[in-house]
Amino acid sequence: MSASINNCIKKRTEIVDSGLIVGSTKGVSVSSANLLIMNPTIRAYIDLTRLQFFFAWPLLFCSGYLLATTIYGDFTWFDLARVSLIGFFGFEAGLVLNDYIDRNYDKKDIESDKLTRYWRIFKTRPIPAGLISPNHALGLFIGLAAVTTGLIATLPYPHSMLVLLIMIYCYTIEMFYQIEKRQTQEFPFAQLIGRTDFALFPVAGYLCLGIPDVNAILYFVFFYPFAMAHLGVNDLVDVANDRARGLNTIPILFDIPRTTIWILGCTIIHAMMAFLFMTRLGLPARIGIIAGLCLLIIANVVILKKKTPDAALRVLPLFHVAMILYAGGIVAGAFF
Hints:
Blueprint: H1 2-38, H2 40-49, H3 56-72, H4 77-101, H5 115-119, H6 134-153, H7 159-180, H8 189-194, H9 196-207, H10 214-237, H11 239-245, H12 250-253, H13 256-278, H14 283-306, H15 309-335
């Protein structure tokens, strides 16, 4: 009897000890994760790459690829994974390039509680803040661009060439846009040319499998006005910093009331192109686009009514959710 009791006590002790070990291990894992996040260098790189939006870029890029599969077939999960990585590393490289080019101008910021806080989870611009050196940022851009180039090279010809040419164009035009908006201009030509890089991003995804056809063109003319409206909202939110930097952004060239008209005009053109684009899409994609347009209507009403940077900041997420709905609808349309 006493032997049985002793065995029970022994087993109970082992179970308790095991539970403590598991609990302790979990505690160490959580603690380690917290320590990593608290590391200033890691936080700086998260802000530099806007890592909290990591899912958006592959989704947008893959929407183009999956649209192409509805036309040309040949879908494979391997290709989807490869295209996702091209979209992720390629866009991240562009974000780092943006901060590298603007590093000296970003030092002049007078507000960090609006656009900087929205795009960067730890509210820092790491290069001008001295958290990441310009050379390290440039090295990161080169590394990300090299990885993207390597992945593109695995695509069959001529798709590899087409996507690579778009990548080179986008990085070049990003540099042109960031530099040109510092120059004296009376009309935002730099912005009109510069945002073609964003509009070409999902088209590049399409060209991973497809060719430059009507669908590719319609995706571009659908997404380009959205990119211009989105830029207007971004610039409106950041108008105080842009004025301090001496940049000729849309609200600086015009004024805030006319910037709200710019946003509305681009949204109207975007809606017109959306209905044209939808003639080539299935039901899930149409539902996603219509839902996104409803959010843009709400955003424009708020911006036109308030006409303030704070109002633009409040509705900026609606533009990004609309983009997710567009891409998500096209992705769903490829499977259903």
